[in-house]
Amino acid sequence: MLSLAILVGLSSFGKAGPIGEFVNNLITWSFGYGVYLFPLLLIYGSAILIRDKDFINTQKVFVGTLWVQIFTSALFHFYIHAEPLSISVGTTALQKSGGFISAFIVYPLNNLLAAEMTHVVLLFGLIISVLYMTDIELKDLIGGVQALSLIHISEPTRLLSIAYGGLGVEK
Question: Does the global pTM surpass 0.85?
Answer without folding.
Answer: no
